[in-house]
């Protein structure tokens, strides 16, 4: 009878480690933010969002209305903190609103 090895690894930890090492975790978190944008900033702001993309640790947000651009610019730091808390990782340091 074979003895069992006692170096078991939690599957969640293994996946997280793999994603970190392959640099896929950042891309995965960025995609989560894009998919959950409406939940993060609210329905009205999301409705006026034309495009949303990441470049390095900067989130670029293009809006269709100057009033909403001002609103998101005013709430920029709050949104950055909310995004990082949402994914429990610091994936964004800056946000550019157009």
Task: Describe the overall structure.
The structure is a single chain. By secondary structure, the chain is α+β, with helices and mostly antiparallel strands. It has one domain (11-97). The protein is 55% helix and 17% strand. It is built from 6 helices and 3 strands. Strands 1-2-3 form a 3-stranded mixed sheet. Strand 1 and strand 2 (58-63) form a beta hairpin. The mean pLDDT is 88.
Shape: elongated
Query: What is the makeup of the main sheet?
Result: 3 strands, mixed
Q: Please give the number of β-strands.
A: 3
Low-confidence stretches: none
The average pLDDT score comes to: 88
Helix content: 55-70%
Could you give a quick summary of the protein structure above?
The protein is of the alpha+beta class. It has helices spanning 11-21, 24-35, 37-41, 43-47, 66-74, 76-87, and strands at 49-55, 58-63, 94-97.
Essential attributes:
3 strands; alpha+beta; 98 residues; 17% strand; 6 helices; 3-stranded mixed beta sheet
How do the strands and helices of this protein lay out in sequence?
Elements: H1 11-21, H2 24-35, H3 37-41, H4 43-47, E1 49-55, E2 58-63, H5 66-74, H6 76-87, E3 94-97
Parallel strand pairs: 2-3
Antiparallel strand pairs: 1-2
């Amino acid at each position: 009878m074979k003895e069992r090895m006692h170096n078991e690894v939690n599957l969640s930890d293994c996946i997280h480690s793999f994603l970190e090492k392959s640099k896929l975790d950042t891309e995965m978190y960025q995609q989560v933010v894009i998919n959950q944008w409406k939940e993060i900033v609210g329905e009205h702001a999301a409705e006026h969002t034309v495009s949303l993309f990441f470049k390095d640790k900067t989130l670029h947000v293009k809006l269709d209305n100057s009033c909403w651009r001002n609103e998101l610019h005013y709430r920029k730091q709050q949104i950055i903190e909310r995004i990082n808390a949402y994914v429990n990782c610091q994936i964004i340091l800056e946000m550019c609103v157009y």
